[in-house]
Design brief:
- The complex is a heterodimer of chains A (84) and B (238).
- Chain A is built from 2 helices and 4 strands; from the N terminus they run ββαββα.
- Chain A is an alpha+beta fold and 84 residues long.
- Chain A has one domain.
- A 4-stranded antiparallel sheet of chain A has the order 2-1-3-4, covered by helices on one side.
- Chain B has 2 domains: 134 residues, Jelly Rolls, CATH 2.60.120; 87 residues, Arc Repressor Mutant, subunit A, CATH 1.10.10.10.
- The relative contact order of chain B is 0.16.
- In chain B, α3 packs across α4, α5 packs across α7 and α5 crosses α8.
- By secondary structure, chain B is of the alpha+beta class.
- The chains are: A alpha+beta (84), B alpha+beta (238).
- The interface between A and B is medium-sized, with 16 and 13 residues.
Chain lengths: 84, 238
């Protein structure tokens, strides 16, 4: 089975150097969502930066297979208030 | 050969020299199993009680879709099935994690000894109670500790229990579980286990040697986990 790596990006990027063997990119996408859910339940503030929180599933050749993006938007942020 | 088993029982219960002699002279067969071999399957009606003399085993339960939870880890010296003295049918499976050596006792002989010797009966009960206490701590661990504390707590317990019975251990105990096994044990995804191991390595609590991970700083792990060994009830028997 191919090995996939799960990198997180939330301003301070963290690269996965171990990876996990999975059958295909679909399985990697599901694993990325589960991993994100795990991580965010411990550290909800990971979703506080404006670009949100990303998990990228990458195959062993460095090809991006799936990205999971989580955004949180507060209704009263200056950006939203000043929008036309 | 039974030394490690007697040491385990003595870690929580008082046994006289005669009690120990009787336990050590129980009839038994030696068995060696490979990693992943089954020791007991859910639904089995056991007639024997295996004692783990070396290696590591685990209890597991499955859900309908095949997902599993490792609900208990058994270490050298641990009796693996005192429960079958009292309950007829196994409610979980028991599997070898590493290669294991077992001394397999006939339950009937053990039962006779338990009926005849009150200290031995008490030590069997206490062993079952300590396992229940560990189960409660694991429930707390999985239910309420974050990933870092949760993994650190399990490793503190592993280190503490190994040192109770196994003699001549190195300063830095190696962690024998794979990332998938730790995930099934702690209710986390394997990728999250990797990430958490990495964080513990960065903090100096663990060290990596190729694909193997060792406990590098147990005091640091204790601090991260907020570990107290009270629930392990060792030293009660003197």
């Amino acid at each position: 089975m191919p090995r996939y790596f799960f990198n997180t990006r939330d301003g301070g990027d963290e690269l996965d150097d171990q990876g996990l063997e999975l059958p295909d990119a679909e399985a990697a996408r599901r694993e990325a969502v589960r991993f994100g859910a795990d991580l965010l339940s411990d550290q909800p503030d990971l979703v506080c930066n404006r670009d949100g929180f990303r998990i990228e599933a990458v195959d062993e050749y460095g090809n991006l297979c799936a990205t999971v993006i989580v955004l949180a938007v507060l209704a009263n942020t200056p950006d939203i208030v000043s929008a036309p | 050969m039974f030394d490690i088993f007697l040491r385990k029982l003595r870690s929580h219960s008082m046994l006289t020299t005669e009690d120990q002699r009787l336990l050590a002279s129980l009839p038994h067969q030696m068995r060696r199993l490979s990693p992943n071999d089954y020791i007991l399957r859910e639904g089995d009606q056991a007639t024997q009680c295996p004692i783990l003399l070396s290696g590591i085993a685990f209890r597991q339960k499955h859900v309908a879709d095949g997902g599993r939870q490792i609900v208990s880890v058994k270490l050298p010296g641990d009796p693996l099935d005192f429960q079958s003295l009292y309950l007829a049918t196994a409610d979980h499976s028991l599997q070898a994690l590493t290669a294991v050596d077992l001394a397999v006792l006939p339950l009937a002989a053990l039962e006779q000894l338990v009926a005849a010797r009150s200290n031995i009966a008490r030590s069997v009960l206490v062993d079952i109670l300590v396992e229940a206490s560990i189960g409660r701590e694991w429930q707390l661990n999985i239910g309420r500790r974050n990933a870092l504390e949760r993994l650190a707590h399990f490793l503190c317990e592993f280190d503490y229990r190994m040192r109770l019975t196994v003699r001549g251990l190195d300063e830095a105990i190696e962690i024998p579980m794979t990332q998938e096994q730790l995930a099934d044990l702690l209710g986390l995804t394997p990728v999250h286990i990797n990430r958490t191991v990495k964080t513990l390595v960065e903090r100096g609590a663990l060290s990596r040697h190729g694909r193997r991970v060792r406990i590098a700083d147990i005091a640091c792990l204790h601090r991260i986990a907020g570990f107290s060994p009270r629930y392990l009830h060792s030293g009660a028997g003197g």
